[in-house]
Amino acid sequence: MPSSVIQQHSHATDPSSSISRRKKCTDDMVWFIHLPMRQAAKALGMSCATIQRTCRSNGIQRWPSRKIGALDRKILKLEKNMFLPRDRVKRTKMLDEWKRLSRERMDIYCNFMSLI
Fold this sequence. Notes:
Elements: H1 3-12, H2 15-28, H3 37-44, H4 48-57, H5 65-82, H6 88-115
Helix pairs in contact: 5-6
C-alpha cells in the first residue's frame, strides 16, 4: 500500500482533526444564525441534533433565527416609514426605536459569538 494512502487513512481517523473540524463548524455557526436550523445545518454539513447539542452545551437554549427574523421585519418596517413626511417628534421616536432594535439584533449576534 502506498505511503500516501496510509497517511491519508491515519489522518482521517486522527481524533484531533475531527476536533478541529468541529471547532471550525461551531465558529462558522454565527454566519448562519439568521437561517432556520435545518438550512444552517445543511450549509455547515452538520445535523440539526449536532447544532442543538453544541448550542445547549454552550448555554444557548434556542436557535435565534426566529428572533432575528422578527427584529429584521420590525427594522424594515421602521425604515420604510421613517422617511415619510412626519413631525419631528414622531421621527425622533422612530429613530430611537430603530436604534434600539438594531442594538438588540447586534446583541444577539454578540452573545451567540461569546457563548460558542
